[in-house]
Design a protein that fits this description.
657 residues, alpha/beta, 46% helix, elongated
């Protein structure tokens, strides 16, 4: 074979050459597949022993000659080399070519050779009889199901990948030469050569009744067998109750790497055998990679052993780590740090549940205090309102298959708002004799457990069972949280003013805590603070919540006389939270002069580091040569140091430096 545009050989087209040793006449053909600038530009075509050559042979109607037996020895088509092992034959042929004066030269040649994944042996392609599925009619129907919107692929970008595969599809070889799998149900008759195809094993040929029949030794392609899964597992081809009830199902979830191998095959075979699609949605998750973004493999030694991870971190923690912060179709990285964070969250949830369960719940706690209550505190309105918002967000994320974001939303609400803020606020009120938080705590925990159950089934089941037993709640069948209704928005109180007011309180406490941390105030020290505001409504909220603020931020309100604020300005730090001005008197708890020196030095270090990062990120050579993750890391560092720099500058300015 030569390229039709290769002028060196155009005069030879249509002529023949003679194969040495057996004097076989071989035609010279022209085909675009032959590369002009590769080797001599003349290629020996072997349709029986190379996939590309097989295609060329089909285009030019070349005969298929198989020179190799199944055991790797050459057959009679190899002439004088009949019976040679393949490696021995190669050496013998080269030696004979040289003896006959037909060998011009020997040069090293690097090329791609297929190897068996299991044994490592070199693969020798040969043409053999296989079973095929005429796939084009099936593919056309499967393509139309997606194009018409009857099947949704999530994320949508993989619809193009799906279409590209089906539009360029070839007949599907479904026979495999393996020792395991579903053996092909075909029996060959040695007397009349008839093929008997049947589900049950026959005792004789259906054509001539001969008992000299043997079953095909090949097995079905694994993807063919698994492609039948949605209906074959339900009793098909029998018309069973399970088949009528469960087919078609709703959502198919799998990795994007087998969209064609498995999902497309299930759709094609399901529509062929059942006459309708097997599912309406395909959710594709990404692959799990190590913390460096590498694909896990035994060879690399970076495989995460799930059993070991469960023993070290817990089952729920592993589940949560694998699915939090992910998005459909995108790969995710798993690291010990992420597993540790998930275990910490599981512990947080467990300890929170134990605390709520330890409270003395009233017998009528199944009736929430926020349904037409005589009175309800703004803190209760706030957490119930936020719970209402979270439930709404999570259900919207479920509907759009953003499962990783749904988990992150629940996580942030549980840790940041319910545990860190509401429970701590509720403790203060309960110490003052207010029992309302107990019921609100039980109600909120109940909803949190049901929200989290699909992601963390074991902890949530255990806590929910105990919560229902202790408070006699009626949120569904108490036999299992699996039977309880998933939370939906409804009668839960939603007070916009309460949300704003408690957010103000949280900001005030957080602002005071941040100043204490920046100036390294000892946790046991009580800081004197003065509040002022131009808005009476916000100042009124501060006064009403002063017990909560002073307890959670370790302060006391200083009595202010006329002119005292300006006199002590040099020894205090003032911050503004919305319209509230908070002045913290620090001279009694820290050395102001020493703190000024420290902050100025830290500011200089931050400015210097920010300058270095800017120079590096402005260097085109660095951007072009450095790995993407290194560049991204430096960008994150620059953003963080700039935020720190801005805060330090404000603190230094506040101190009058």
């Amino acid at each position: 074979g030569v390229n039709p545009n290769d002028n060196r050989y155009s005069h030879l087209l249509g002529k023949n050459v003679v194969l040495p040793f057996i004097d076989r006449s071989i035609p010279i053909i022209a085909d675009e597949a032959v590369a002009i600038d590769y080797g001599t530009g003349a290629l020996k075509i072997t349709p029986g022993h190379a996939p590309d050559d097989f295609d060329i042979g089909l285009r030019h109607a070349l005969p298929i000659v198989n020179v190799m037996n199944d055991d790797g020895t050459l057959n009679e088509e190899a002439g004088p080399f009949n019976g040679y092992q393949r490696d021995d034959a190669r050496k013998a042929i080269a030696e004979q070519l040289e003896t006959n004066g037909l060998l011009e030269k020997v040069v090293p040649h690097v090329h791609m050779v297929g190897h068996c994944q299991r044994s490592g042996d070199v693969l020798e392609p040969i043409v053999s009889k296989q079973w095929f599925v005429r796939i084009e009619p099936l593919a056309a129907r499967a393509q139309k199901a997606v194009d018409d919107g009857n099947i949704l692929i999530v994320p949508e970008r993989f619809s193009k990948v799906y279409s590209n595969w089906l539009e360029n599809i070839r007949d599907w070889c479904i026979s495999r030469q393996l020792w395991w799998g579903h053996r092909i149900p075909v029996w060959y008759c040695s007397d009349c050569a008839h093929l008997t195809v049947t589900i049950t094993e026959p005792s004789q040929c259906e054509a001539c009744n001969s008992e000299s029949i043997t079953q095909d030794e090949d097995v079905l392609d694994t993807w063919f067998s698994s492609g039948l899964w949605p209906h074959s597992t339900l009793g098909w081809p029998e018309d069973t109750e399970d088949l009528r009830y469960f087919y078609p199902t709703s959502v198919m979830e799998t990795g994007y790497d087998i969209l064609f191998f498995w999902v497309a095959r299930m759709i094609m075979l399901g529509m062929q055998n059942m006459g309708e699609i097997p599912f309406h949605t395909v959710y594709l998750h990404g692959l799990i990679r190590d913390e460096k973004g590498r694909k896990m493999s035994k060879t690399t030694g970076n495989v995460l052993d799930p059993v070991q991870a469960i023993e070290e971190y817990g089952t729920d923690a592993l589940r949560f780590a694998l699915t939090t912060g992910t998005s459909p179709g995108n790969d995710m990285r798993i690291s010990p740090g992420k597993l540790q964070s998930s275990r910490n969250f599981a512990n947080k949830l467990w300890n929170t549940g134990r605390y709520v369960l330890s409270l003395d719940h009233e017998a009528d706690s199944a009736t929430p205090p926020f349904t037409n209550p005589p009175r309800i505190h703004r803190q209760d309105k706030w957490i119930l309102g936020r719970l209402n918002q979270v439930i709404s967000q999570v259900n919207e994320l479920w509907d759009s298959y953003q499962l990783g974001e749904a988990q992150q939303t629940i996580h942030d609400f549980v840790w940041d708002e319910f545990c860190d803020w509401y429970i701590e606020m509720a403790k203060i009120r309960m110490r003052e004799g207010d029992s309302d938080p107990k019921r609100v705590l039980a109600h909120t925990l109940d909803n949190i457990l049901r929200l989290l159950h699909p992601f963390m089934p074991f902890i949530t089941e255990e806590l929910w069972q105990k919560l229902n037993a202790s408070s006699a709640r009626s949120t569904g069948n108490s036999l299992s949280i699996m039977l309880a209704q998933y939370p939906t928005t409804g009668e839960i109180l939603h007070d916009q003013n309460a949300l704003k007011e408690v957010n103000l309180i949280v900001e005030v406490i957080r602002g005071i805590r941040n100043i204490r941390a920046e100036f390294r105030v000892q946790p046991s020290s009580i800081v004197e603070v003065q509040f002022s505001s131009s808005r009476d409504d916000q100042l009124s909220v501060i006064r009403e919540e002063m017990k909560t603020i002073t307890t959670m931020s370790r302060i006391k309100v200083a009595e202010r006389s006329k002119g005292q604020e300006s006199d002590n300005a040099a020894n205090s730090v003032a911050i503004a939270i919305q319209s509230i001005r908070i002045s913290l008197q620090l001279d009694t708890v820290v050395d102001i002069a020493t703190e000024k020196i420290r902050l100025v030095a830290e500011l200089a270090d931050a400015e210097s580091y920010a300058k270095q990062l800017k120079q590096r990120l402005g260097d085109s050579k660095f951007l072009s040569r450095a790995p993407e993750e290194v560049v991204d890391r430096d960008r994150i560092r620059l953003h963080q140091v700039q935020e720190r720099e801005s805060l330090l500058r404000d603190l230094v300015r506040n101190l009058g430096h």
